[in-house]
């Protein structure tokens, strides 16, 4: 379990760097999807070829690849439409959805401790983001703006799909590398289909002199995303799904820290309380799962000892 926690935590750091990089340089989402997908596809194709794996095109693999493609594309879109911290909070609110899909698809009950941790996490995120319809005067959707509404919808859709993907991979037991390869293929096709028709695309609509600089920026940002995604995917199965989703949600803390540094935005008292609640939920969930794992190992050892002593 420790290995899975380390992989997921490192993934959060890379995703934070990716979000900050994308917003600081105002990178186009379609360019990022295309470049990330290309790097992803080439890297995994070489890895699969070198390890001698057979390429699978089953419905489970294609379905997982499609879910991953939609999830990560919507996350990149939300980064383009919302401030960094806000986009991360909505895009990484996966814990309640992961618990729901684990209960429905994997028949895993959610313990009282996990339920409390999820509630603390959501309360902490609420304090961090401070939505206007709760903490200040709210004049309807028009006061938020259509851009913000689309960004929130994209972020929440990403959270739902990521929760589904976490459980889907465990239930179907499909190859993670195969799913990532298919996801990269979908990203390339999507980027090539939309990019030429989007005037804001820097890759498809730039001068020859600016192309190397643009390509370097987009490739650097996409590399952070690819590294984070690979680490995150290989963490699945090495730690409980709900715990992984709680770790993913801590990206809101690191992202707000980066946002404070890059864009000179200070946290208020409620936001600091929110950060503390998010970290408490993660620490409690980690110790709880560690305790359960220890009890399970002790039980297995006791059973083995009993079997040996029996005539």
Highlighted features:
311 residues; mainly alpha; 14 helices
Would you tell me the structural class of the helices and strands?
mainly alpha
Q: Distance N terminus to C terminus?
A: 35 Å
> Which bin fits the share of residues in helices?
over 70%
Arithmetic mean pLDDT: 79
User: How would you sum up the major sheet?
Assistant: none
Oligomeric assembly: single chain
The total domain count is: 1
What is the alpha-carbon Rg in Å?
21 Å
The helix count comes to 14
Unreliable segments (pLDDT under 50, ≥5 consecutive)?
137-143
| Cα shape | globular
Strand content: under 5%
Secondary structure: number of strands = 0
Task: Give the H and E element order.
Answer: HHHHHHHHHHHHHH
Describe this structure in words.
α1 (2-24) packs parallel to α12 (241-249) and α2 (29-51) packs across α11. This protein is 80% helix and 0% strand. It has 311 residues and is mainly α. It has one domain. The relative contact order is 0.20. The chain has 14 helices and no strands.
Describe how the helices and strands are arranged.
Layout: H1 2-24, H2 29-51, H3 59-81, H4 84-91, H5 95-105, H6 112-129, H7 132-135, H8 141-144, H9 146-172, H10 176-194, H11 211-235, H12 241-249, H13 251-263, H14 269-309
Helix pairs in contact: 1-11, 1-12, 1-13, 2-3, 2-10, 2-11, 3-4, 3-9, 3-10, 4-9, 4-13, 5-9, 5-12, 6-12, 6-14, 12-14
């Amino acid at each position: 379990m420790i290995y899975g926690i380390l992989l997921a935590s490192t993934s959060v750091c890379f995703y934070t760097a990716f979000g900050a990089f994308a917003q600081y340089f105002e990178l186009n989402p379609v360019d990022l999807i295309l470049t990330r997908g290309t790097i992803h596809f080439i890297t995994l194709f070489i890895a699969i070829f070198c390890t001698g794996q057979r390429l699978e095109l089953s419905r489970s693999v294609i379905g997982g690849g499609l879910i991953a493609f939609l999830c990560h594309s919507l996350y990149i879109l939300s980064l383009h439409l919302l401030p960094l911290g806000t986009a991360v909070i909505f895009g990484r609110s996966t814990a309640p959805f992961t618990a729901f899909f684990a209960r429905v698809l994997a028949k895993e009950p959610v313990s009282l401790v996990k339920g409390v941790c999820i509630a603390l996490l959501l309360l902490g995120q609420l304090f961090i983001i401070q939505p206007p319809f709760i903490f200040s005067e709210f004049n309807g959707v028009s006061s938020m703006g259509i851009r913000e509404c689309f960004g929130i919808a994209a972020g929440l859709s990403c959270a739902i799909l990521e929760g589904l993907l976490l459980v889907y991979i465990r239930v179907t037991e499909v190859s993670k590398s195969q799913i990532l390869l298919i996801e990269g293929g979908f990203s390339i096709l999507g980027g090539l289909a939309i990019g030429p028709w989007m005037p804001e695309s820097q890759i498809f609509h730039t001068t020859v002199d600016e192309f190397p600089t643009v390509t370097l920026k987009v490739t650097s940002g996409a590399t952070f995303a690819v590294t984070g995604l690979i680490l995150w995917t290989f963490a699945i199965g090495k730690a409980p799904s709900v715990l992984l989703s709680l770790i993913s949600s801590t990206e809101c803390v690191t992202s707000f820290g980066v946002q404070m540094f890059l864009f000179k935005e200070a946290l208020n008292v409620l936001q600091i309380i929110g950060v503390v609640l998010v970290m408490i939920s993660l620490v409690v969930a980690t110790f709880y799962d560690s305790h359960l794992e220890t009890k399970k190992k002790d039980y297995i050892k006791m059973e083995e000892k009993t079997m040996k002593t029996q005539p």
